Amino acid sequence: MIVNNLKLLVGGVQLRDGVVTMTDVLGRIMTRAGLYVLAMERGYASTIYGAHQFDPMRITETPPLSWGDREVDVLIALDYDSNPDAAPQPNRDTVLRHGRELRDGGVLIYDSSTGEIDAGELERRGIKVFPVPARTVARDELKRDVVKNIVMVGALFRVLDFDPAGTYFRTLIEERFLRKGQQTVDINIRAAQRGRELVESILQAKGWTDVGYRLEPRPLREPLLLISGNEALSIGAIKAGCRFYAGYPITPASAILEFMEEHLPKYGGRALQGQNERESIRAAIGAALAGVRSMVGTSGPGLSLKSEEFGVSGMTETPVVIVDTQRAGPSTGMPTKSEQGDLYLSVFGGHSEVPRIVLAPATQEECYTLMMEAHELADKYQCPVFFLTDLNLSEGRKAVPESFFLSQKARIDRSTLVTEEDLRRDGAYRRFAVTPSGISPRLLPGTPGAVFKASGSEHDERGFVSTDPLVRKAQVDKRLRKLQTYLKEDGRPPQVFGKVEGRPVLIGWGSTRPVILEAQQRLQARGIEAAVVHFTHLWPFPTEAAKPLLEQANTVICIEQNFTGQFAEVVQAHCLVPVRRILKYNGVPLYPSEIAEGVEAILRQGVSTVRITDGPVPVKVSEGD
Amino acid sequence: MAETKAQKISAKVWEENAVPRHRIQWCPGCGDFGVLAALKMALTKLEITPYELLIVTGIGCSGQIRNYLNGNGFHGTHGGPLAYALGAKMVNPELKVISMGGDGDTFAIGVENFVHVCRRDPEIMHVVMDNGVYGLTKGQHSPTHGRGMGLEVFSEEAPPPFSPLRLALTAGATFVAQSFSGDPKHAAEIYVQALQHKGFAMVNDFSPCVTYNKFNTYDWYREHVEEIPADHDPSDLNAAWDLLNDFDRRGRLPLGIIYRNPRNKKAFRRAPIWPQELADADVRPLLRLFA
Ligand SMILES: Cc1ncc(C[n+]2csc(CCOP(=O)(O)OP(=O)(O)O)c2C)c(N)n1
Ligand code: SF4
Predict the structure, then answer these.
(1) Nearest CA to A92 among A70, A114, A73, A121?
(2) Is A521 an interface residue toward B (CB < 8 Å)?
(3) Is the Cβ pair A451, B51 closer than 8 Å?
(4) Are A447 and A461 in contact (CB under 8 A)?
(5) What is the pTM of this model?
(6) Rounded mean pLDDT, A132-139
(7) Of the residues A340, B48, B73, B155, which has the fewest C-beta atoms closer than 10 A?
């Protein structure tokens, strides 16, 4: 019997079967029961209706290292109608697509409203199959089709022997639906109850006393929050004093805009849905100019459009935080799939040379803390600060103790601002004064005593346009000198996990850290001691910290979700060590076993690059995404 | 008398923190000088201080205006001034925000920002320094190129001009006016009203390019402009359209306020400004959403 450690996957038809509602209910209840939840590799499609959608969720007693491999212990199929391409299996995409991922000895619960599947093969693999006619029960008995997923919640809870008294469930349902009336609450409670009963009778008929998995509530020392990267970074921004946000809707960044529109006004701020990407970032720059910490959020295509303004921010030394929730592919690519493909655009994008800082959080926690840092750095260095997340991280949810968030304090550094007193003391104000640190005194409009002139055209110290070679050189030197100051004062070396010397070193950046760390453990179990060197502060590249470190390694392997190994190139160029690569770019998240295998292939066969492909699609399934 | 004196003192204020006269790069005789003069007159009249002013400009000869007078100035991308201005105004309504751009800047590359700022209606005055060409890039056609020419002169590559005033009205601007930099005093009066408007105020200012636009010259404008009749009711949208149609029919260009009808809308609230007013925010209520 495995207690409090399983991965489940809920699948169904997008916008019809209530996949997201179901995992949301499950996730909330589990975190309230003191269990850790990690739900990061969500599958959905750009087609709004009708495509296959799935949502895996890992539930554990102690914080999990990563989302683990593809295998799932419990599969819940909410779809009930026939897949025309799959005559022998009337039930549907979820079973077809994910049946192979189901571990031997696992559990399948599926909606049998339109007929039972041929479970022979699954049962031979020791899988316990529960046909639950959820939709029939919801539609015919309860007269409320939409609660079919709640029937499944009840069924699942019975299977896992969780919440027998229904207290967790009732509390959550009341919170959610009491405003819609007692009747809605009652129907949901009855739906869950029916689910339980249906499973109960199957258990009895089959004579199963347990199914091999159980969930038990844990004493809650403090509340756990189930939070996505987008949500964590939004709250981090508000905490850091960001009071202007602009965005143009784009998956997967829209959630930030929606969050900000709802909550920023409560903190005196404003959110703007721009009419396009350029209006958004320009308005954000305008707001920053007026003295408000400001931010934009977008994804790849929007970042391309904004790139003209990278230079404006850099050249006029106007701070702005630019969130890029990376998605897969150039052009519009795959809007609902994840990738780490925008590093080059963030680091090198825009014409000529723009001073900038590029950060990439690895976890939901870091979405919060690093976002606070992003705003601090933007203000201090008066340049664009890029914040690279990706679809997995920004939409993926994770249980994090509330105290983690409460223990962080925002830092507001006033040193770069000239005040009225400063101006009275030494009259002449120069917005772009050449300073040893490269940071010039900033003035907010409205301050009596001086004005600023800022220009995206090359300018002298006072901000007047100039092409004087000496002026030009002094200003370029000054602007780019900031980055040296940053490296000295605020740069962060990579985080090192394990001993580097003489060992293979796995390099990662951004959201893949958890999987790389899990791969490290798997390798250890197979006798390969590897170190992990992970970067959150990508640019300017911390050569001084990274080079001596990587020079001690026996093999350097960079793992990222793109075709070329964008970060690998950066590391190689700066550290002058050969960097091997493990790359995945088919839109599917990286799994620890793939990394471990890739590392073995590199170490044993000496290959320089491993490009991961997922196995072939097992069965032809209905298209739609 | 006292008034003149006060004006003289404050008029000089606009010369400080600015590029000295002899370093102004506009061609001698450029219409933009008239716009600059009118702007200074209007600012002086309204007793605006340079500190509370933010002038955001586009790219082009027109865009250089920010350096030629006192006040906070920002110069970002070609086509961008209105969006920067919008952001600044949204967070700090106490700032006096003026946006200045060329016709290329406003109606070509920046039309996306222009159309929507008309709808958004922030309290910003935008002056288009309309010369019918791209001055700074040496005379290519702009969207208002060919004003007053016969239709037969246009080709597919160089289509006929469109009407800035009609675009502004269509997009929902609540203040639409036109002026001529050859008559800065008149232009200044219009700017004064535009600056007092509680909403977005667009002034299309004919500002001849003496170097590249040999057709729409000062003389040509003087022959074609005509003051809007005193009995025109600018608060009447239909009257505004009728007026434009009437002037078009007669081959004349209206000067004055074509449309002015402020919306009754909520004032912007000022956002907390970094760093003076920023306290460590209590985000507990937000976190509770996820418990
Ligand atoms: C993105 C971009 N494209 C092109 C240019 C080149 N450019 C500079 S000024 C200008 C046209 C300016 O014309 P207008 O706005 O009418 O102003 P004017 O110079 O006539 O006052 C152009 C196209 C630029 N600076 N940026
Ligand atoms: S080129 Fe034309 S618009 Fe530019 S300064 Fe000369 S006259 Fe003025």
Answers:
(1) A114
(2) no
(3) yes
(4) no
(5) 0.96
(6) 96
(7) B155
For the four alpha carbons of A212, A215, A216 and A222, in that order, the dihedral sign comes to: positive
Query: Ligand 1 mean position to B109 CA, how many Å?
Result: 8
What single letter denotes the amino acid at residue A370? Answer: L
- The CB density around residue A471, as the number of other CB atoms within 10 Å, is 18
CA separation for the pair A85, A571 (Å, rounded): 47
> A206: which 2 tokens?
């089959």
Q: What is the pLDDT of residues A10-28, one digit of tens each?
A: 999 888 899 999 999 999 9
Question: For the segment B243-262, what is each residue's pLDDT rounded down to a tens digit?
Answer: 999 999 999 999 999 999 99
How far, in Å, CA of B139 to CA of A609, rounded? 53
Q: Which of B51, B70, B91 sits opposite A243 (nearest CB)?
A: B91
Q: What are the structure tokens assigned to A322, written together?
A: 């630019």
> Which sign, positive or negative, has the C-alpha torsion B67, B68, B70, B73?
negative
Close Cβ partners of A221 (under 8 Å, ≥ 6 residues apart)? A34
Task: Give the ligand whose atoms come closest to the C-alpha of residue B181.
Answer: 2
Contact B95, B53 (CB under 8 A): yes
Cα nearest neighbour of A428 on chain B: B17
CA of B210 to the centre of ligand 2 (A): 6
Distances (CA, A) of B87 to A281, A290, B191, B279: 9, 8, 22, 22
Angle of the A167-177 helix axis to the A148-159 helix axis, nearest 10: 160
Q: Which ligand is nearest to the CA of B76?
A: 1
* ipTM > 0.90 (yes/no): yes
In 3D space, the residue among A365, A382, A491 whose CA is nearest the CA of residue A431 turns out to be A382
d(CA B59, ligand 1 centre) in Å: 5
Choose among A368, A362, A366, A337: nearest CA to A41.
A337
Distance from CA of A403 to the nearest CA of B (A): 10
